[in-house]
Amino acid sequence: MFTITDRPEENQTTASLFERAVKIAGLTMAPFDPSTVGAPDFTAPTAAEVSAAAYEAALDGKDPSTDKGVQKILTSHLLGTVIGGFHYRNQVALSRAKLAHYQSEAPTLLEELATRFEDATQTMRHALELVGHVSLQDQARNLYTLNDDQNEAVFAATMADRKTRPMLDALPFIVAATGDPFESRAKHKTLMYADATFEQFNEHRLDGESMRNNYGREHSVWDVLGAGVDVELATTKAELDARIHRIEHPEAPRDLNGEQARRDDARAMAQALGIN
């Protein structure tokens, strides 16, 4: 998702995806300054200029293939285009430097993203305290059943919930730029923000591959909060991996009654065999 290569076209694609993620999340970052990348002070002669020099040499009765002037301009042309590819090499350097700049910006962007996400989450928590877990999609019904303060809180929660969606879309791209990308499947998508227990994950159908949650809607921060699940943005691979491990490898509950029964059986067997 974020790899710096020696192919400028690939680097530009990576840069474009990263820039889009930053934009849709409403984040800001310092722009990349291409003047910081050194470039050779050299302009290669064009093919037309090489052809013109060879033609002039021939008109003067010289052999263009051995003429020093033609050889010089031809060599410069080849070094700058076909062989050296100065322009291409400069594009490689520029594209690599741009991605390196984005990498340096990633930690600050993650902090800003986490702050914005927490602000939106707090807005939704406030609404939950006032009105409970109502449907944000049923605005018409809410207008008739809630008072002005409650409707204002619901509207704010609706806007906040909408803001979190592009933030969550952007999160994997920005985390990838830190050099330690998420490694998760669609199944674990909700765990980027839902710090759920094994029981909560299954009870509330938080599997990211499920098309609908228990409320018949697409997964959202609002519904996860309404289900009583802790919500906090995972901004590192370690955080997300810990949540995934909790879901994929739940600790087996101890059968205390069964353990006691097995101890009683062992004790009875020992007594029957005369073993103290």
Low-confidence runs: none
β-strand number = 0
Largest pleated sheet: none
Helix content: 55-70%
The overall pLDDT average reads: 88
Q: What gyration radius follows from the Cα positions, in whole Å?
A: 32 Å
Counted by DSSP, the helix tally is 10
Shape, per Cα inertia axes:
elongated
Protein model, in words:
With 276 residues, this protein is an all-alpha fold. Among the domains are: 8-99, no CATH class; 184-276, no CATH class. The chain is 60% helix and 0% strand. The longest helix has 46 residues, at 86-131.
Write a short abstract of this structure:
With 276 residues, the protein is mainly alpha-helical.
Please give a handful of descriptors for the protein shown.
about 280 residues; mainly alpha; 10 helices; about 0% strand; elongated
Question: In terms of topology, how is this protein built?
Answer:
Layout: H1 8-24, H2 47-59, H3 68-80, H4 86-131, H5 139-145, H6 148-176, H7 198-203, H8 221-226, H9 237-248, H10 256-272
Helix pairs in contact: 1-4, 1-6, 2-3, 4-6
